[in-house]
Specification:
alpha+beta; Outer membrane efflux proteins (OEP); 10 helices
Amino acid sequence: MRRQAWALLLILLLAGCSLAPKYARTPGEVPQEYRFQSLQGQPQPGLNSLADLAWWEIFDDRELQNLIRIALEQNYDVQLAAARVAESRARVGSSRSLWLPQAGGAYIFQRQRVSQVSFPPLPRGAPHTGDINQLSLDLFWEVDLFGRWRSLTDAARAEFFSSQWAQQAVFASVVAEMAQAYFELRTLDRQLEIARATLKSFEKSRRLVVMRFERGVVSRQDVAQVNALVHTAGVRIADLKRQISQQENRICLLLGINPQPISRGKPLPALAVRATVPAGLPSDLLERRPDIRQAEEVLVAANYRIGAARADFFPRISLTGLFGRQSMDLSDLFTGPAKIWTIGPAVTLPIFTGGRHYFALQETWALRDQALVLYQFTVRQAFREVSDGLIAHAQLGDVRREQEALVKSNQDYSDLANLRYKGGLESFLAVLDADRQLFAAELDLANVQRDQLLTVVQLYKALGGGWDRRTQ
């Protein structure tokens, strides 16, 4: 009894020990600061990173904020991510249940016939048919001697954490996609406004040209040229209406609703662009970016599965038992002589498996190496996205100022060309060229204003912001 007690104690001490390699975070080289970070100027006091701000502090348009709130509740990607989290949570519970003893009950009724010429032969006159009734409670418990179940459960738990970070990544993507779609919609609205104003200007010029043609001052060529201007603006208006409707449909899909008009807030020129966007420390990105944390949890899970594969090389000890009653007649089932029971350990040891366990272990190492590569790639990709966002934000401010100056120059050029044309000092070709350049410059300015806003959106997401679902 003393030896058995010591053996049981040793089994319990060994139960649950893990053979998984010790995990250490290995993101690769982490720079001291982001490339182009110095171009952003002095950070805002009390704000280490743009990602520290909630999304409603980044986007100051009430209509956009309302659209984001609806999308975070109704978007199909959000709902799918929530379902995947629930699936992973259930998988953890299922894996953990295998640690515990398993019990089950059964009632068996059988009517059987035995051979009359079997060995030993039945006594003469003995019945060769009969009933068997059995009521039993079965017990089974596999002792987690080398941590196989623990490693599998830890892997499932890491995958559950990975699904949670994937859900946060979906939140960030939905916030960014909604902001991007809304800014693109407001850009199309602004361009439609420019096109309509330009069309009115072109129609006014056409009336003047037609009047001058009727008086014999200009040729039919001038009339044809001004008609081309009017139709150019008309074509652009029709195309912008098409793009606006399709952009509204895109936003509706993000909202999880059927296509319908989308309410607007501030016009494009009134939407604020932050002058400075503090980036923070690159090392903080490892904790903040949900896609990096998701990739790391996948790596952790792969690391634990190595421990489970290693445990397959060692013996498995199972404790089994059966308690119940068995009788030929149902009336005798609950009498004393009908009792049956068995209890005892079972030890299984893999001796020859054709290399199955060896190759299974090699597979887990290969999967772990793949997860490590993907994790380090995700980190590098994150640094690249932040750096791209910083340089874009720094340079687009200069691009906008130059584009605004270009619009002003083209406006002056157009005014002067029209004055000289009315005075008979310039051909209508110069007016046509000036108006065409002004129209294109104004449309390009709207695109630059949009790009500035989108740069803030992309940088905010790249820094790990936007997945906070709380509201104001």
